[in-house]
Amino acid sequence: MLEFVGLDERAESVYRALLAFGAATPEALGERLAVQSYLVQQALTQLEAAGLAAASASLPDHYVAAPPGVALAPALSQRRHELHEAERVVEMLADEYRRTGAAASGAADLVEVVSGVSALRHRFEQIQLGTESELLALVTDAPVAVGPEENGAEDIVVARGVAHRTVLARDRLADASMMDALTLALSRGQQVRVAEQVPTKLVISDHRLAMLPLLALGTPGEPAALLVRAPGLLEALIGLFEQCWQTASPVRFGTETAGQVEVDADQPDPVDLQIVSLLLTGLTDASVAKQLDLGLRTVQRRVQRLMTLTGVSTRLQLGWHAYERGWVAR
Q1: Residue-wise pLDDT tens digits, 68-95
Q2: Helix 285-292 to helix 270-280 angle, to the nearest 10 degrees?
Q3: Would you identify the CATH topology of the domain 1-99?
Q4: Which CATH number describes the domain made up of 107-263?
């Protein structure tokens, strides 16, 4: 996490240990981290150069950590400045692009064809990394450009808190690599449903950009995809996804064997029932999360899943359906 100030993983671990100690010798740090002393000394040299550690003035052979808020503030300020400048340049380039003849009709802004495996891989990564709140996906046959095990961008956006909803064609469950990816996705709180048939591959980013496959263009057999920004087309594609989502079956971890998944068509699990019961007592989402030792986003995701499962749009309706279906006692 501290790569932005030039620290490698070992230097960061030494800094964290030094923060815990307050003051420590290289030998003590090495013993705590199970790292040889000379490697700790190299890390301390890095920390000194970055202004994050210094030799203790009162304790011989000891080092002390600089307060993170003070030591890292200049680097954070510089990063903010660089980001602001980058945003300004992007806006300037976008204005120039809109003024060109190629974009005069507006068509180039709305639909774009991307062809070739390398270009598809690059654009798919851009779409994921550019997503801020939610990524929707329909998954059918085997991937053309990026396999589940190669999709490092997904790890990054999940760590940022981007929500994922995916509808998976049932025959994809026979693929071992897909099952591994599915198990990982479920463990990270991503929502996945399975359908007997999925009409097309599709990725939608923040309801503002979609990517779907085309038949081979140009070179015979060369894969191609369509990037869609046109509002009308986007609404149609979002509607297609939501229709597939509504008719698909939720997926959760199996209770018998770790790592297995199973389709649960219309029943909540025990944690869902606890959440509904506590909400009906008048507790807030945050209070429910605290009571059950869950994350707030986890509680909210589960409530949204139950609302989707019951086909309701308000929590009041969800409470009524929970009573009617016997999920909670009257």
Answers
A1: 766 677 777 777 777 788 878 877 876 7
A2: 130
A3: Arc Repressor Mutant, subunit A (1.10.10)
A4: 3.30.870.10
